[in-house]
TrEMBL record:
Species per Swiss-Prot/TrEMBL record: Loxostege sticticalis
Name this polypeptide is given: Neurotransmitter-gated ion-channel ligand-binding domain-containing protein
Keywords noted in UniProt: Membrane, Signal, Transmembrane, Transmembrane helix
Record InterPro entries: Neur_chan_lig-bd (IPR006202), Neur_chan_lig-bd_sf (IPR036734), Neur_channel (IPR006201), Neuro_actylchol_rec (IPR038050)
Transmembrane segments: 230-251, 258-278, 290-311, 371-392
Length: 399
């Protein structure tokens, strides 16, 4: 019997408690309902909060992520936009509404600022305020999630260490007069860790705020590409290939290794150029200079392949050389020019026969090939020492 009494008592208690919670909730809801009804009485949402005065709207973006697509040149920022203002018509006395000091408005019942961004892309995004918090002082805060996109002209000459500048322009719709967009705090954007993207890092930010201008708030982002990975597969090989090409010229033209080495360099050029085709951004005002470097270096290597084959033939020639070859030979060897002939090849001994004429011809041809090779060598060294500082991108100092 005792347990039955207990059970009945417990269920009563349960009922009572439930009732109490329900009552409490419905009471607050009732006050809130009454408040919304009273506030919206005669409220014209199309009129500015402060009919005679300018309405100041504070704006702040909490950046969640960003992206700059190098191919489409579109900069995207995904963030929470916090806008706040004071609406004199949304004031109330908390004691009149059961001590209620704040309330949520879930639909756009009251006035909201129409924040617009200029230079937007085809992708049109209508701003939708799903929820706003209103305090009894008339202070309204809305925090919609927004995805802002803008066209950003990219300059790729220093790719993969390029730096890009993207600008986002904000203003208030022309349908709302006398509304000023003002950044909340010193900066209108708070990035936190979101400034470190997978492809780019935001290294600098500045903003211009001028409420009398067409663009009320201009935010400029400076982005550095995280190019280390690309550099290791594209930039460092460029340096190695130029050393490989230039050092192959030091070898003797009769040495088979020289031709193999320079052909290998040629193949590597082709390989890296095709590799770069996958990685390189397609649409850009300025093409990457590293591309020019590879192309010029490939032309030079191609020229050196021909030079190697031709010089190899000339070096072993036994016929009497034409007069101009002999004169080039004697002019260079009888002047200071002979110190620039490096490396110096010895005449092939097997070719030498007893006849004096033959000995002389082989020596002249060998010397002539040697002179041409030295010219090729110094030419390549000069070309590379100009091209490497000019065309190979360097990492910008981090600011
Ligand atoms: C407009 O602003 C002035 C000073 O800032 C203030 O005295 C006045 O009451 C405001 N008027 C309205 C209608 O809010
Ligand atoms: C703000 O914009 C107006 C209109 O374009 C211009 O006349 C004024 O000089 C600007 N003010 C500043 C501080 O840039």
């Amino acid at each position: 019997m005792v347990w039955l009494t207990h059970l009945i008592f417990l269920s009563f208690l349960h009922l009572f408690r439930c009732d109490c919670v329900l009552n409490h909730q419905s009471l607050e809801e009732a006050w809130e309902k009454q408040l919304h009804k009273d506030l919206m009485k005669g409220y014209d949402w199309s009129e500015n909060p402060n009919t005679c005065n300018v309405t100041e709207v504070k704006i702040k973006f909490l950046m969640k992520s960003f992206n700059l697509d190098s191919d489409t040149e579109i900069f995207t920022m995904y963030s929470i936009m916090i806008v706040s203002w004071t609406d004199e018509r949304l004031k109330w006395n908390p004691s009149d509404y059961g001590g209620l000091t704040e309330s949520y408005f879930f639909k756009m019942e009251h006035w909201v600022p129409f924040v617009e961004w200029i230079s937007r892309t085809d992708f049109d995004f209508g701003l939708y305020y799903d929820e706003c918090n209103v305090e009894n002082t008339g202070y309204v805060v809305c925090s919609p999630r927004v995805l802002v996109e803008t066209q950003c002209t990219t300059k790729m000459s220093n790719w993969p260490y390029d730096t890009q500048t993207c600008t986002l322009d904000f203003t208030i719709s022309e349908y709302q007069k006398d509304v000023h967009l003002i950044p909340k705090g010193k900066r209108a954007v708070s990035m936190g860790g979101a400034g470190y993207g997978p492809e780019f890092t935001i290294v600098d930010y500045h903003q211009v705020s001028n409420t009398s201008d067409k663009v009320q708030l201009r935010m400029t982002f400076v982005l550095d590409r995280n190019g280390e990975h690309l550099a290791s597969v594209i930039v460092f090989p460029a340096i190695l290939l130029s050393i490989l090409t230039a050092s192959s010229i030091i070898l003797d033209v009769s040495d088979r290794k020289r031709l193999l080495m320079i052909l290998f360099s040629m193949l590597c050029h082709c390989f890296y150029l095709s590799e770069m085709g996958w990685e390189i951004p397609k649409h850009s005002v300025e093409p990457p200079t590293i591309l020019l470097f590879y192309r010029s270096s490939m032309l030079l290597t191609m020229f050196l392949v021909f030079a190697t084959v031709i010089l190899g033939k000339l070096r072993n020639k036994e016929t009497a050389p034409p007069a101009w070859v002999s004169s080039v030979y004697s002019i260079v060897l009888n002047s200071h020019g002979k110190y620039f002939i490096w490396p110096r090849w010895k005449t092939n001994i097997e070719l030498l026969t007893s006849e004096d004429d033959d000995v002389k011809s082989v020596e002249v041809w060998n010397g002539f090939a040697n002179i041409v090779n030295s010219v090729c060598f110094f030419f390549s060294v000069i070309v590379y020492s100009i091209m490497i500082p000019m065309c190979v991108p360097k990492q910008q100092p981090f600011t």
